[in-house]
Amino acid sequence: MENTFEHDLPDDKGYFGEYGGSYIPEELQLVMDQITASYSECRKDPEFRAELARLYKHFVGRPSPIFHAQNLSEKYGADIYLKREDLNHTGAHKINHCLGEALLAKRMGKKKLIAETGAGQHGVALATAAALVGLKCDIYMGEVDIAKEHPNVVKMRILGANVIPVTHGRKTLKEAVDAAFAAYLSDPVNQLYAIGSVVGPHPFPMMVRDFQSIIGNEAREQFQEMTGQLPDNLVACVGGGSNAMGLFSAFLQDEQVALHGVEPAGHTLQTPGEHAATLTLGEPGVMHGFKSYMLKDDQGEPQEVYSVASGLDYPAVGPQHSYLKDLGRAEYGTVDDDEAIAAFFELSRSEGIIPAIESSHAIAYAIKLAQKGVKGSILVNLSGRGDKDIDFVVEHYGKDYDIESLL
Ligand SMILES: *Cc1c(COP(=O)(O)O)cnc(C)c1O
């Protein structure tokens, strides 16, 4: 793809307008500067690009197709298309940036990839990339999450990763982040902290976006080939924002293409802690090493957040989304748990595709847009497949959708 790595933002300090940057201890800044320098060599290096392109094609199975969802389209009176990231090896878009990060780490002479994981999706994608590229992999995970996400824990171990239980505090993602960070600081020379979305200090929001921009670059070409036109609307769910930035990035200059990001309204937008609608209800601030919109509690600490989709419950968002919001170039709306679950079943039963609950938020939003009579076609990023979610969905929502308990 032609312009995979060509973007004029962020600036060389990592800012998208006032957002982004790097707010970290000085010793870590030196390491980040090295990562930035290596990455800027990689993005220009034909060999690095060719290796990544080879893996995208022959390992991940790219390009992922675009599918015209005709049954949904007829039912709701708008042409709805799906970019099928669910068909990637490992079942979601995360493998796109994990491979990029693993190749970069290898090139920098690192021995080990480190990350935290909540539901285990980032952990599995990173363990996969580490196995392929030949790096060690330490994944920090809260004990509570380990118990909940058994299949992903088993997968990581089969892939040769070291899953390290985090046993303090609430024993979930927040503590896992702290533990992974501490481990990274203990030896930043031999390890690379592989951030799982377009968040964190510069250069990660830029780098992860660039690795994910394959989605938008493919989609732009495929959609034109299919229809002779550009899509009128793009829709993607936003947790940290990587699948959305990957899709949006190829269309930023096309002002006639409307960009819609979808945040989780969880149980309700009325109560802090019951949603993760960062751009909708948050305010600018600094957390986790970067400046962006974020949700904070009374103490100014990261707010507890919630969504039925564990990949979406993050109290901040990638800085480029904050920039696009303020510019008015992208719009951000919300979908709650029940709407997402309804869309999960709707896509399963009308098109034969079981989506991830995260991606179901984007499907639900596309349906809402169609019902509101939005102009033109809608291209939805189907960021992942729902295999990981089926037991949870049937246990909690099966009855509402005519699935009798099998127990
Ligand atoms: C992790 C995940 C997301 C959310 O992450 P982004 O960085 O916002 O893309 C969305 N969909 C799926 C399937 C995921 O696994």
From TrEMBL:
Pathway: Amino-acid biosynthesis; L-tryptophan biosynthesis; L-tryptophan from chorismate: step 5/5. The keyword Plastid does not apply. It holds the Pfam family PALP. It comes from the Bacteria. The modification N6-(pyridoxal phosphate)lysine is found at residue 94. It is an enzyme of class 4 (lyase). One of its GO terms (molecular function) is tryptophan synthase activity. CDD domains: Trp-synth_B. Transmembrane segments: none annotated. Its cofactor is pyridoxal 5'-phosphate. Its EC number is 4.2.1.20. InterPro entries: Trp_synth_b_CS, Trp_synth_beta, Trp_synth_beta/beta-like, TrpB-like_PALP, TrpB-like_PALP_sf. Keywords: Amino-acid biosynthesis, Aromatic amino acid biosynthesis, Lyase, Pyridoxal phosphate, Tryptophan biosynthesis. Residues 61-384 form the Tryptophan synthase beta chain-like PALP domain. It catalyses: (1S,2R)-1-C-(indol-3-yl)glycerol 3-phosphate + L-serine = D-glyceraldehyde 3-phosphate + L-tryptophan + H2O. Gene3D superfamilies: 3.40.50.1100. GO terms for cellular component: cytoplasm. Tetramer of two alpha and two beta chains. The beta subunit is responsible for the synthesis of L-tryptophan from indole and L-serine. NCBIfam families: trpB. Belongs to the TrpB family. HAMAP family: Trp_synth_beta. PANTHER family: TRYPTOPHAN SYNTHASE, TRYPTOPHAN SYNTHASE-RELATED. This is Tryptophan synthase beta chain. It comes from Photobacterium lipolyticum.
